[in-house]
Amino acid sequence: MSNPDQTGNHGKQENNKDHHCDHLHESDSSHGHAHGHSHGHSHGHSHGHHHHGHGHSHGPNNKAGLAIALLITSGIMILEFVGGLLTKSLALLSDSGHMLSDAGALALSLVAMWFAARPPSRKRTYGFYRFEILAALLNGVTLFVIAGFIIAEAIERFGNPPTVASGSMMVIAGIGLLANLISAWFLMRKGDVKDNLNVRSAYLHVLGDALGSVGAIVAGLLMLLFSWYIADPIISVVVALLILKGAWGVIASTVHILMEGTPPSVDPAEVEISLREIAGVKEVHDMHIWTITSGMDALSCHLKVEDDAKEQDILQEVIGVLADRFGVEHATIQIEKAGLRHPELKV
To answer: Which residue blocks in the chain are alpha helix, DSSP H?
Structure first.
């Protein structure tokens, strides 16, 4: 997915990758590795880094959206916490507790972006890109914990629901809802809530807050009109379950990445077919496709080619196909001919 955030930082990505290569060339020279465009060593091993606008981005727009959402969330968190104590509303208190989690999640997301922007080194050849995935995972887990506390407190209140100042509760919840919608709007407008897992998890936190505010308004209305004070814990449980649904999606995605799972946007069978269609390629094997972090996919494979094939031409075409057709811009390709033998790989 291409957005202004990604386009504006294309130069930064190139600089980071050049810095990556500068650090690694020196150590790689001892065994003949070559990074970049399509330089092969003695058995045709090549790393391709081709860019065409799908690269990873940690630009000022994502950061601005998160910073604005953090300020708004922190302010409303204090308002709902005080309001929950004064009105005795579990819905408001649970929403303020959720917002406390969100404020931490948004702050963690900003820290993760700062870490991810640090250049790679010999010790960490991928830099700190994975920190964003760890932050997203932690955000998802905290959502589960918060939802668990809400449900536990709601169960205790079912037997003897307290009287709640529903009118004041609805006013505070309305302010919270408006603030959450503003935060979500800033994240959608300035950030990549679809493809960046870190921003997406923060966005889901904010949406969870909005759901909590809606639930508090509905509960307040039922209590105001019918004195159904049990509506407060019931709505709290419904909101908690909706929060769990969103949290599960984030956790599943982050665990899939940490387990080196194939990116959902890439079909390995289609990749193999496309590579085999390249003139001179006889076989594709030992292929692995994984995600380094949101928006940055990687691939490695062995290509068995005709003995009279021009390896560099094949490599260049492969790099182009992977980038243009599948959005994979980090490729490590080993060229093999009839005389090459190597042990069978276990994975």
So the answer is: 4-8, 10-28, 60-87, 90-116, 130-159, 166-190, 197-226, 231-258, 268-276, 311-326
